[in-house]
């Protein structure tokens, strides 16, 4: 079950990935800080380390993935219109193990200039 999925924007490809505030509930605890690192496995079982951070001040937390995100976006050749999905995966280890996450990329499929769907990225 996805923790969140979204269509990739220009800012997502060039700088950072903005994520829904609800995604914070599925991440490891921040322990009073404004950032937390977590790892996610892609479709090829490659492990990626990301950092989710929130604003230090202000009313809205506005979470983003920064550390690790640009390398991931570059390696996966993400483009505007592609879709990214982060989800909590089953952890085969003990309850004390860090949570397991998965990340999936889907390419936008267009026909005559119109999006007709998505396909798994290769």
Written overview of the protein:
- Helices cover 10% and strands 41% of the residues.
- With 122 residues, it is mostly beta strands.
- Strands 1, 2, 3, 4, 5, 6, 7 and 8 form an 8-stranded mixed sheet that branches.
- The longest helix has 7 residues, at 69-75.
- The mean pLDDT is 85.
Summarize the structure.
The chain is mainly beta. The protein has 2 helices and 8 strands. Helix content is 10%, strand content 41%.
Topology of helices and strands:
Layout: E1 2-7, H1 10-14, E2 17-18, E3 35-41, E4 47-53, E5 64-65, H2 69-75, E6 83-89, E7 100-111, E8 114-120
Subcellular location: Nucleus
Pfam families: B3
Organism: Salix purpurea
Helix content: under 10%
Q: What order do the helices and strands follow?
A: EHEEEEHEEE
Number of helices, where a helix is a run of at least 4 consecutive DSSP H or I residues: 2
How far do the termini sit from each other? Answer: 21 Å
Give the overall shape, derived from the CA principal axes: globular
Main pleated-sheet profile: 8 strands, mixed
Report the strand count: 8
Q: C-alpha Rg, in Å?
A: 15 Å
Class from helix and strand fractions: mainly beta
């Amino acid at each position: 079950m996805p923790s969140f999925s979204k269509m990739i924007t220009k800012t997502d490809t060039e700088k950072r990935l903005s994520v829904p505030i609800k995604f914070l509930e599925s991440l490891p605890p921040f322990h009073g800080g404004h950032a937390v690192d977590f790892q996610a496995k892609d479709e090829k079982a490659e492990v990626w380390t990301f950092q989710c951070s929130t604003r230090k001040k202000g009313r809205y937390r506005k979470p983003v993935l920064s550390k690790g995100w640009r390398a991931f976006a570059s390696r996966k050749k993400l483009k505007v219109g592609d879709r990214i999905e982060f989800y909590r995966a089953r952890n085969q280890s003990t309850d004390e193990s860090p949570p397991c996450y998965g990340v999936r990329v889907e390419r936008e499929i267009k026909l005559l200039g119109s999006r007709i769907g998505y396909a798994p990225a290769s």
